[in-house]
Amino acid sequence: MLTKRVIPCLDVKNGLVTKGVKFQNNVVLGDPVEMAVKYSDGGADELVFYDITASAEHRPIDLGMVEAVAKAVHIPFAVGGGISNLEDMERVILAGAEKVSVNSLAVSNPDIIAEGAKVFGRQCIVLGMDPVRSDHCPSGYEITTRGFREYTGLDAVEWAKRAVDLGAGEIVVNSVDADGTHQGFELTITRLIAEAVSVPVVASGGAGKPEHLVTVFQEAKADAAIVAGMIHSGEYTIADIKKVMAQAGIPTRMNY
Predict the structure, then answer these.
(1) What is the pTM of this model?
(2) What is the domain extent for residue 45?
């Protein structure tokens, strides 16, 4: 079995890391570069940064932040938010990011996935998705965009399959229903997508204790899991999480 990855997520707004619940009521937590170094040194396998208001505000991502993080850490990281075209992708990658996450852009222009994969390689292209429970879609989950501001009518599983066919190399499943609740990942939609696609699936939204990662790896077949509030608060460290994973027999890089 391949090692499972633990990935801290830093939601950035106005140059600072914030955290909310179900995409709302965000509070400021600190400087993204300082927090990136802390988690990199603490054993994180990768990092992910979302400029959470860039798409809604129709502005580009903060490249200065990307460059600063690239200089400060020695693990891969992905960025998303405010990506509008191939040129934006190129700027982010040249600034030091290993992966580019597209979400709202991919829904409005699916060809950007194929174009990005062709130019930069599919390993660089991550599809971020924000599914919410819905009676209007066959899988029971509908894709939302622009920070849960817009419902698309797209079925989450069908969209994941199409994105992989287009060239997405990884899918991040960020459950709107579970986001910030600390009650555990949304196992059903994570498992449905993991079983439907051939690329790594990253579970996101809802982690509150190390056991939640064990569950999503064992029961939902996730390849990686994103954590945020549970480590931002200081209640747990990456080392705490990986020790519990190891005790449960889940392979992980003990890089702390």
Answers:
(1) 0.93
(2) 5-247
